[in-house]
Amino acid sequence: MLQLSSLNQEHVSPTGLIRQEISRHTPLGQKAEAAARRGQSPSGETVTAIMRRWFWARKPDAGFALTGFPATLLQAKVFDEWLDARGESLDGVIDAADANDTASRHVVNHYRAHGLLLDDEALAPVLAK
Asked: Residues 105-124: pLDDT tens digits?
């Protein structure tokens, strides 16, 4: 298993950030908590807003690994805009999408078209560390 701490990378997931927002009783956390009480996931808009808060609060050019975001093509395009606005770029994207999940396949195809999708050969040196 790849240890992100050994690569000096912050591991970020919407789930972890949503938990923080709920525990802090922020307006976004309250929206997420209300959705959970209804047995639903937070809306894509709420997730994007929470991720936006994280992205713009982090130090520029600080390394990170995202899990579960972007989850839709719209989120991928918005995330690309955030990166462009800060003059940053992704080093690569790992395909962890469910083959039956159309939304995640669109995200994978988006990053494949940008030449960012890492294949097994590109991952081998990273995973060997």
From this structure: 899 999 999 999 887 655 55
Instruction: In whole angstroms, give the CA distance from residue 106 to residue 100.
Output: 11
| Number of domains forming the structure of the chain | 1
* DSSP reduced 3-state for 39: coil
Range of the domain at 111: 4-127
Nearest to 86 by CA among 105, 107, 64, 71: 64
Instruction: Give dist(CA 28, CA 113) in Å, integer.
Output: 33
- Predicted model pTM: 0.82
Contact criterion met (CB below 8 Å) for 110 and 76:
yes
* CATH code of 30's domain: 3.40.50.300
* Contact between residue 10 and residue 28 where contact means Cβ atoms under 8 Å apart: no
Q: Which DSSP string corresponds to 57-105? A: HSPTT--EEESS-S-SHHHHHHHHHHHHHTT---S-EE----TT-HHHH
